[in-house]
Amino acid sequence: MTTVGGSEELQSDQHVDLMLNMGPQHPSTHGVFRMLLRVDGEVVLDAEPHIGYLHRGSEKLSEGEQYNQVITLFDRLDYISNFNNEWVYCRAVERLMGLEIPERAEYIRVILGELNRIASHLLFLGTFGLDAGAMTPVMFSFRGRERIQALFEAVSGARMMHNYFHIGGLKEDVPDNFPQLMTKLLSEIWVDVEECDKLLSFNEVFVARTKGVGAIDLETAIDYGWTGPCLRACGLEYDVRRAEPYSLYDRFDFDVPVGKDGDCWDRYFVRVLEMYQSLVIIEQALKDMPPGPVMALGRRLIRPPKGDVYVRAENPRGEIGVYLVSDGTDKPYRVKVRPPSFCSLSALRHLVKGAYIADAVVILGSLDIVLGEVDR
């Protein structure tokens, strides 16, 4: 120790660890989430994630609702992926009941589910750009997302929280001018996605901020339960739409984009490529969509037979699973959700150790979490 003017100063070879709260007020910590970081200067020595207090007991609330009423709770789990979440729950009840869904309803579900994937990835692209310090991309990505949200409103009557997928099909058919709306929308979205891609993906500063940052190997990612774009960024071509095809996905020709290094840039770019593939699927579905009914059931109380079922699907953040137990009444005995965001978040501590504080923000953003699904 040395003394200067009566005060003690640490010698240059000594370090002081500092505990730093990042969030929930930090603009890049996504909702109520916060990280308790232990830092040495700008380097993160350790991190303790806290998922906050968003918990609203959605799974427990499901036990007190009739089967059709539960759909609104799934809308609010991942509020950026409403249609995909409604879809997987409806499929669980339909499998338990042995219901065959009208073909037209299946085509509409695929189209809206893939549009929802694009809207979610556009939101990710814009906000991830902000996390990395890029201001302009969010303007471009929100423009495209708003076009999709306008179509969702025309179809379901709501921009979010649609309650449009019902057990047995859909609440109602799409508007008469749906093909015209979709044709116009697709031509615009292709341009929007391409512009966002050109603006950000290979930007020199963005690549420097994301390439080689937050890398994880495939074996470790699997150990943490990663799925979706985060896992595919590590090089594994695993997509529920291919691994266990549901609905009509076995009829469509599409690729499953994968990365190589499992870093922040790969997790970003896999999502960009997925938007192009979703557009390819939508175009095929629109071309083949038949006329006919969109609901297999009339207006009656839903009482699945006693039993249990587990159904999984590929939502924008990865594999979402629903475990459903029926006791033969009009309300589920138990509903349990397997959330992809929670599993992705489990590896955060591993990813940010040894990174800079600024990189911790980018690493968190690359996981694309939604807290409503993390803390159900």
Structural write-up:
The protein has about 375 residues and is an alpha+beta fold. It has one domain (about 55-375): Cytochrome-c3 Hydrogenase, chain B (Orthogonal Bundle), CATH 1.10.645.10. About 45% of the residues lie in helices and about 15% in strands. The chain has helices at about 60, 70-75, 80-95, 105-130, 135-155, 180-200, 205-210, 220-225, 230, 240-245, 265-290, 340-345, 350, 355-365, 370-375, and strands at about 1-5, 5-10, 20, 35-40, 45-50, 165, 170, 305-315, 320-325, 335-340. The strands form 4 sheets. It has a 3-stranded antiparallel beta sheet with strand order 3-4-5. Strands 8-9-10 form a 3-stranded antiparallel beta sheet. A two-stranded antiparallel sheet has the order 1-2. Helix 4 (about 105-130) packs antiparallel against helix 5.
